[in-house]
Design brief:
- By secondary structure, the protein is an alpha/beta fold.
- It folds into three domains: about 110 residues, Rossmann fold (3-Layer(aba) Sandwich); about 200 residues, Mur-like, catalytic domain (UDP-N-acetylmuramoyl-L-alanine:D-glutamate ligase, 3-Layer(aba) Sandwich), CATH 3.40.1190; about 130 residues, Alpha-Beta Complex (Protein-Tyrosine Phosphatase, Chain A), CATH 3.90.190.
- The chain has 17 helices and 20 strands.
- The strands form four sheets. Strands 7-8-6-9-10-11 form a six-stranded parallel beta sheet. A six-stranded mixed beta sheet has the order 15-16-20-17-18-19, with helices on both faces. Strands 3-2-1-4-5 form a five-stranded parallel beta sheet, sandwiched between helices.
- Helix 7 packs across helix 11, helix 7 crosses helix 12 and helix 16 crosses helix 17.
- It is globular.
Length: about 450
């Protein structure tokens, strides 16, 4: 990283001058700490604030940075008052009173992704969407590696963007959330996609239109737009003056599915790339993810043969349509990462035969009636648990048998009693996990443990 060039870029775009800027980093989580590690060697003076009484403090960092003031247990008004710039972690809402007041008084908001964009001079691929973004990000990272590229993969997934910065990286692949995008203004990705839009995070966004608007920011700049032709809200984002690649699992597009004889292929325009059956993932929505990854790879010049080879050995992500066990003719699938309705719908639509669905948790303000048609079509029965189980049961309005349970062990036991030879039991909650679990990983692990104990 050329420090002089990075500082010049930060000055140009954000008036961020180490001599005059007073930066307040809001949030001491993994993003906030990545920002601190980025700012320190550039000579910026900054303080950090966190609303939690006991945030996870990196003692080693602060021993080496004794001049960095840290405020915890609330948002200190004095710290916000003197700041010229706020760098707000994605986990903190921009509707916090302290942030609104600071912005009204002329304080600028900068994101970690803005800092990253100012520090990078190689192509960036930016991936967002309600569902599938972690899968597509990981797929594309594997494709880039198979193509012989030195690639940095992270963002909202795994490693924070700023911690990926390295001199030898030739391509960055970033997963970005709506919270990261809403506070980002200078990202100019070489290729970008919104994979899909469905109701999510409506506890933080006013409505789905605002949520879609924030997602659309991933296309800022002049790079290749990769468009999901199957999603009405995403298709409407297309800019006729920009280079575009489209993908679809329903109709013909730049990347699509088609039969040649009895075999269904992933296609690029007129060319068959590989048989769909060679993609080792459950559900047709993963065919859509593969097509999106291929389109992004073509946009940044990756080798097609290498990309297809990477797809054939792609094992998928933990807690995302992950097969836990197959015993007594019953397949148990962990899709705990389905924290919203769209993800659950996509999982259900991937099945030919009706499944037993385990769902529930914190609905995050979403309208659960959107689940009803696909549950009626694809579920044999539903096992519900968690904070908004009642809300989901009311939304389903008796379209399938519903069973209420208190915990995951009960859910697995009830599902086992309902399942017969050839059935799949799918944990795809359509809800966040924090009402009962540390996170979606904890929820998925508890499901897997309960299943493995049962089949043992």
């Amino acid at each position: 990283m050329d420090k002089v060039a990075v500082i010049e870029s930060l000055k140009t775009h954000f008036d961020l001058d180490p001599k005059t800027a007073k930066i307040l980093v809001v949030g001491l989580g993994i993003t906030g700490m990545s920002v601190a590690r980025f700012l320190l060697p550039l000579g910026f003076s900054f303080a950090m604030v966190d609303s939690r009484d006991k945030p996870p403090i990196n003692e080693e960092f602060f021993q080496n940075a004794p001049d960095v003031a840290v405020f915890t247990g609330g948002f200190d008004a004095a710290a916000f008052k003197v700041a010229t710039h706020l760098i707000v972690s994605p986990g903190v809402s921009l509707h916090e009173k302290s942030i609104i007041k600071a912005v009204a008084n002329g304080t600028k908001i900068v994101s970690d992704i803005d800092l990253f964009a100012c520090a990078v001079n190689v192509p960036i691929v930016a991936i967002t969407g309600s569902n599938g973004k972690s899968t597509v990000t990981t797929m594309l990272g594997d494709m880039a590696t198979a193509s012989g590229k030195r690639v940095g993969v992270g963002g909202n997934l795994g490693t924070p963007a700023l911690d990926l910065l390295a001199n030898n990286v030739e391509l960055y692949v970033l997963e970005l959330s709506s919270f990261q995008l809403e506070r980002t203004s200078v990202l100019n990705a070489a290729a970008a996609t919104v994979l899909n839009i469905s109701a999510d995070h409506l506890d933080r966004h006013a409505d789905i239109a605002e949520y879609a608007q924030e997602k659309q920011r991933v296309y800022l700049g002049d790079g290749v737009m990769v468009i999901n032709a199957d999603d009405v809200l995403v298709a409407a984002m297309q800019d006729a003056e920009r280079e575009t690649l489209s993908f679809s699992i329903k109709d013909k597009a730049d990347f699509y599915l088609a039969y040649q004889g009895d075999t269904e292929y992933l296609m690029y325009r007129q060319s068959p790339l590989m048989p769909l059956a060679e993609l080792p993932l459950e559900g047709r929505h993963n065919a859509s993810n593969a097509l999106a990854a291929l389109a992004l790879g073509v946009a940044v010049g990756l080798d097609m043969t290498a990309m297809c080879s990477a797809l054939k050995v792609f094992k998928g992500l933990e807690h995302r349509m992950q097969r836990v066990a197959h015993k007594h003719g019953i397949t148990w699938v962990n899709d705990s990462k389905a924290t919203n309705i769209g993800a659950c719908v996509a999982a259900l639509e991937g099945y030919e035969r009706k499944v037993i669905l385990i769902a529930g948790g914190d609905a995050k303000g979403a309208d659960m009636t959107e689940l009803t048609p696909v549950v009626k079509d694809k579920a044999k029965s539903v096992v519900l648990m968690g904070k908004d189980a009642n809300l989901i049961e009311q939304a389903l309005a008796g379209c399938v048998p519903v069973h209420r349970v208190e915990n995951m062990v009960q859910a697995v036991q009830i599902a086992a009693s309902l399942a017969s030879d050839g059935d799949s039991v799918l944990l795809s909650p359509a809800c966040a996990s924090l009402d009962q679990y540390k996170n979606y990983q904890d929820r998925g692990n508890q499901f897997a443990q309960a299943v493995l104990a049962l089949v043992a």
